[in-house]
Design goal:
Strand content: 15-25%
Number of domains: 2
Radius of gyration: 25 Å
Structural class: alpha+beta
Shape: globular
Number of strands: 18
Length: 509
C-alpha cells in the first residue's frame, strides 16, 4: 500500500511542479525511448547522450545559433601562429565546477591529456583521436592561459573545440569518483545531475552558481520509455511536455492538436548512394552520371514525408562550402539513356544494391528508384543483409551500390570530406569515395585545412564540392532534420543547431 501511495504522491508532485505560477519552480518533462549509457563526455558519441552533456558541461567555445560561427565560452579569446600549428587560448576567470572547485588552465590540460594519454579511462574514448589527429600537446602557460600544439597546420581547429568530448571536466571529481564519474558527471554547465535511474528517469537541476547567471528552467525530468506507443500516449495526455522519440507514421496523430508545437533544426549530415568504383561499369563517369539523372527527389517525399531535406551536393545546407547551384542532374531518363548509349551500353547491365535488413525506409527508396533505373536498362538486384554481413561486405568492397551517410563532428567541411575519402573508414565498413582514384581531391583536402582566411577557405571547399558533384562520385540524397514535438503551454521550445535543447535559454525565450 505504501508503494502505491508513493506513486500517487510523486505524480501529484509532478503535476504541481509543471503548473506552478510564474516565479515558482519551473519543471520541463521530456519523453525518450532511450537513455544514455554514460554521461562522461569523453565516452559519449550518440544523440541520446549529447542533450544532457551540452547542459551539464561547457566547452572552450560554443556555436552561435543559426550561423555555426565559433564564439567564446570558457575561453574568452584565442589566436594562432602564422602556420596554424600553435593556438593560444585565454580563459575565463571566476568560473566554478558543480563541486565548487575552480575552472582554470589545469582543468583544460587535464581534460585533453586524459584523452590523449588514456588516463582515467573506464569506457571507450570513441571520437577524440578521430577529431584530433593533429594534436601533439596541450600545455599550461599561465593560470588562465593554455596552448595547443599541433603536428600540422589546421585552421579549422577552434571549431573542433565545440564537440562534446572537449567538454571540460572537474579534475577533482574525476580523480575522486573514477568510474562513477560516468554516472555523476561534474562540469561547469547550467545543470547538474540530481537523479539518474538507468532506463527509467534522469533529473537535472539548475546550478545556482552558473557563471552566465540563473538558468531558465529549474528542473528537467527525462522519462525513458522504450515502448513508443506508451510514449505517444503520455504526450497525448499531456503528461510529458516534450516528445523526442517518434515514428513518422505516428506523427499524423498530432496534426489536429492545436496545443502541439514543432521545432526543427537542420542536422549537419549528408546521406547519399555510394558507388563502388571498382565495379567495371561504375568506374565510368558516364554511368555514374546516368544513375544520377535517374534519381528523382520526389521519392524522398513519398518515403520520408517532410522529415528530411533533399540535397544536391556533398555538403549539407548550413555548412561552409554548401552550394545550392550544384543541382546538375535533374531527373531525365532520356539523358541517362543517351549517356549509356554513347558508352555502348544499350543492352543494359545489372548492379547489386546492398541494404541492411530492417531498413524499411531505405528498402522503399530502392524499390522505387530501381524502376527508374530499369527504364534506362540498369537492372537492380537487392541484397538485404544483417548489420554484421553489411559492414563486412562494405569493408571488402563486395557491393555495387549502397546507402551511406556521415554526420559532421564539428561545423567545418573538413569533418565530412576528409573521412569520406579515407581508406581506413572504408575498411571499417562505411562506404565512401576511397574506392576511386581521386588523388587530386585528396591533395586539395589537405591544402584546405592550411588556408587561414575563412572566406578563401570557403571558396576552396565550394570548389571541392563542385568536383565531387561533377565527377558524380555519389548520388546526393538528403540531410537529416532534428525534430521534437512539444506542448505549447510551456512556451516555444527550440532545438539548437546540434539538435539539443538549450535549457539555460529555454526559460528566457
Amino acid at each position: 500500500m505504501k508503494y502505491y501511495k508513493r506513486i500517487i504522491l510523486f505524480l501529484i508532485f509532478l503535476l504541481m511542479a509543471v503548473s506552478m505560477p510564474a516565479g515558482k519552480e519551473r519543471v520541463i518533462i521530456s519523453g525518450n525511448r532511450e537513455g544514455p549509457s554514460t554521461l562522461d563526455p569523453a565516452e559519449a558519441w550518440v544523440n541520446t547522450e549529447s542533450n544532457y552533456i551540452t547542459n551539464i558541461f561547457n566547452r572552450l567555445v560554443e556555436l552561435e545559433p543559426g550561423t555555426y560561427k565559433v564564439k567564446p565560452s570558457l575561453a574568452l579569446a584565442w589566436e594562432s601562429d602564422a602556420e596554424g600549428k600553435v593556438w593560444t587560448f585565454r580563459l575565463r576567470r571566476g568560473v566554478k565546477f558543480h563541486d565548487g572547485t575552480p575552472f582554470d588552465a589545469d582543468a583544460v590540460v587535464f581534460t585533453f591529456e586524459r584523452q590523449m594519454e588514456g588516463k582515467y579511462k573506464y569506457g571507450e574514448f570513441v571520437l577524440f583521436k578521430e577529431i584530433f589527429p593533429f594534436l601533439k600537446k596541450v600545455k599550461k602557460i599561465g593560470k588562465y592561459k593554455v596552448q595547443f600544439i599541433l603536428k600540422e597546420p589546421f585552421f579549422p581547429f577552434p571549431a573542433t573545440l565545440s564537440v562534446d568530448c572537449t567538454s571540460i571536466v572537474s579534475p577533482t571529481a574525476m580523480k575522486r569518483m573514477k568510474a562513477e564519474f560516468r554516472l555523476q558527471p561534474v562540469g561547469t554547465g547550467p545543470y547538474k545531475i540530481k537523479e539518474w535511474r538507468k532506463g527509467k528517469k534522469i533529473v537535472l537541476e539548475s546550478f545556482k552558481a552558473y557563471w552566465k547567471g540563473k538558468p531558465g528552467i529549474d528542473r528537467y525530468i527525462s522519462i525513458i520509455e522504450p515502448n513508443i506507443d506508451k510514449l505517444f500516449e503520455l504526450f497525448r495526455k499531456q503528461k510529458i511536455d516534450i516528445l523526442r522519440s517518434f515514428s513518422i507514421s505516428k506523427m499524423v496523430i498530432f496534426r489536429g492538436y492545436d496545443w502541439v508545437g514543432y521545432s526543427y533544426s537542420n542536422s549537419l549530415s549528408t546521406s547519399f548512394i555510394a558507388f563502388n568504383m571498382k565495379n567495371r561499369y561504375l568506374r565510368k563517369i558516364c554511368v555514374r552520371k546516368a544513375v544520377n539523372y535517374l534519381w528523382n527527389k520526389d521519392i524522398l517525399k513519398l518515403v520520408f514525408q517532410d522529415h528530411v531535406k533533399p540535397l544536391c551536393s556533398l555538403f549539407p545546407n548550413g555548412m561552409s562550402g554548401y552550394d545550392c547551384d550544384l543541382d546538375r542532374y535533374p531527373m531525365s531518363v532520356a539523358k541517362a539513356r543517351k549517356l549509356l548509349n554513347e558508352e555502348g551500353l544499350q543492352k543494359g547491365f545489372e548492379l547489386n544494391f546492398l541494404v541492411t535488413r530492417g531498413s524499411d525506409l531505405h528498402l522503399s527508396i530502392v524499390n522505387i528508384f530501381s524502376k527508374n533505373l530499369k527504364k534506362a536498362g540498369i537492372r537492380i538486384k537487392v541484397d538485404n543483409v544483417g548489420f554484421d554481413e553489411y559492414f563486412s561486405r562494405v569493408s571488402k568492397g563486395e557491393y555495387d551500390l549502397t546507402f551511406s551517410s556521415w554526420i559532421a563532428d564539428y561545423p567545418d567541411p573538413f569533418s565530412i570530406i576528409n573521412p569520406l575519402f579515407s581508406k581506413k573508414i572504408q575498411s571499417e565498413g562505411l562506404a565512401n569515395f576511397s574506392t576511386g582514384e581521386n588523388i587530386d581531391i585528396i591533395k586539395m583536402i589537405k591544402k584546405a585545412r592550411s588556408i587561414k582566411d575563412p572566406v578563401k577557405r570557403e571558396r576552396y571547399y565550394k570548389g571541392l564540392n563542385n568536383l565531387v558533384v561533377e565527377r558524380a562520385l555519389l548520388v546526393p540524397l538528403y540531410q537529416d532534420i532534428n525534430l521534437i514535438l512539444y506542448n505549447k503551454k510551456q512556451g516555444e521550445i527550440k532545438l539548437n543547431d546540434q539538435g539539443n535543447i538549450d535549457l539555460f535559454m529555454l526559460g528566457k525565450q
